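Final paragraph of the annual report: two paired records, presented back to back.
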Amino acid sequence: MDYNEKVMDHFLNPRNTGRIENPDGVGEVGNPKCGDVMKIYINVKGNTISEITFETFGCAAAIATSSVATELVEGKSIQQAFNLRNKDIIDYLGGLPVAKLHCSVLAEQGIKAAISDFYKKQGIDPEVVLFNTK
């Protein structure tokens, strides 16, 4: 598989790795077909993602997209982080092989799952807050 320099940098030197003790939210997602599993941890201060880390078991693209996703949302509002799309991750990386695009989707889903978990831990329906539904 041919990866560009930016993907390889994030694979070989991933940012924001590890676990947060007592996180405000945790999102765990996986793809049973390829075996990739991502766990995203967040801490929230006010309405801002103050800290975000990840643990990923998977290929180079899975690790790189996890790393980039954390960089793109750290310091952003919860809504901005929730609005992250896999295309944003792909664009930031300068592209991914077609067979690895699903890794960027997993990273997006992991962020959303961590944010949903954050709200659920507070007894708040994430659908109401994030989508303004009743």
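The closing record of the year follows.
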Amino acid sequence: MRPEALSAELRRGRGPYLARRRAVAGLSLVAIGAMGMIALYQLGLIEHLPDPPLPFFDADAVDASAEAYARLAMPDGALGLGSYAATLGLAAAGGAARATDQPWLPLLLAAKVGLDAAVAGKLTADQWTRHRAFCAWCLLASAATCASVPLVLPEARAAWRRLRGR
């Protein structure tokens, strides 16, 4: 597909999956914003992460913990930014007919979102079991991730059917 056609299709096109892909892209950007706030704190650019004034919220404790710095010798906020940027890229890649023309793209997006949802669930559980507190920013990213799961499934099913010759 020519870049001009892709531009028009992604911005103004209609199709059974484009609205869902746009929603996944928007949710990825919400998660990127949340991870950006966490990264600001974890890198010392801000001294405190604001939380709702409710019991059981303590983003500072959760995001300054040893677990938050245990993977790849970097803060997990930075890892999250890269991960959600990859999800955004997969949601944005290809034209409206990619389930037919490039079926591996919807399948990769579905696998990525499924993996992200599993990781988000584990990390959310870990917040409570290890710290007896939650990070509102983390919960926002987790909610955005989980909301993406049902959005990617229809296109992934269509891509799977295409690969199987149905």
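The mean pLDDT is 96. This concludes the annual technical report; the extension proposal builds directly on these records.
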